[in-house]
Amino acid sequence: MEDKYALLIDADNVSAKYIKPILDELSKYGNVTYKRIYGDWTSTYNSSWKDVLLENSITPIQQFSYTHGKNATDSAMIIDAMDMLYTSELEGFCLVSSDSDFTKLASRLRESGKNVIGMGEDKTPSSFRKACDIFTVLELLLEDNAIEKEEKPAIHAMEKCTKQNNAEVVSKTEIEEAVVKIITENQNNDKITGLGEVGSRLVKLYPDFDVRRYGYSLLSKFLESFPKLKLRQEGTQVSVTLYEDKSKKEMLEEYVIQLVRNAGRQGVPLGTLSNKIRNRFGDFKVRDYGFSQFKQYIQSFPEIHIREEGEQNWAVYDV
């Protein structure tokens, strides 16, 4: 049985041009049981929505703007969401808005064990994004769904907006380091890292993570662009591993053994050895080789043992 979701749209803060991408994206998660949209339908501002409501079986909820500056739509959405939470068997909610006022609602629904999918324009504050399990930028969906030519100006506006908010996009370097850490943790527990696990854990770390923000349509292609990562496929299973540059690894191992051997019986303090390795191999990180600590890495050499003297550890070559 498919998971059931409620779709709640804030018409005051989202354009009607996004409706098809929204429904297409939400269909990936399950069956949309509730489709409701909130706004003042007497206002000309929401007139663009009226044409698509019947076509997509979306129920409009009328909310008059009783007081200038007060958003009645927010209250109506929140009340309906809480009613659904307690009276319906839903797996999750999709909250469509670019307004941070729904941050508390998203947090409350998650506290009740519901999956919360947020969707909003690129201007959406980070507080609402992080309150959701998954957050998707609507401009990316618009571009991904190849919207008609008359809506192309919106894409150019999105590109401009993305450049202005570039600081909010997680860098590829940070993503790569996060994946390396995931793989290393699994290796330490003798676990294989599946492609699906990488995707789900990245979303948990960064709720608005979306490979489309980096110009890719598939997570696998995105990960293949990183020099430290390698994908392996066995049957239908795809796993993500650390790419080992054999020549570089061998050069590093030879260098370590040479340093320790030349030090004789006295050995080399681990701190000194670490500094020399980093001076020679500037991008050296022990987790790239499957270890969480430098000491563990040195202990992996069969020719070397660790001698402890007080608070200092020495790497000594076994003659």
Automatic annotation (TrEMBL):
Pfam family name, one: NYN
PROSITE patterns, per database record: HTH_OST (PS51644)
Record-annotated HTH OST-type domain positions: 171-246, 248-319
InterPro entries noted in UniProt: LOTUS-like (IPR041966), NYN (IPR021139), OST-HTH/LOTUS_dom (IPR025605)
A GO molecular function held by the record: RNA nuclease activity
PANTHER family the record matches: HTH OST-TYPE DOMAIN-CONTAINING PROTEIN, SLR1870 PROTEIN
Protein name: HTH OST-type domain-containing protein
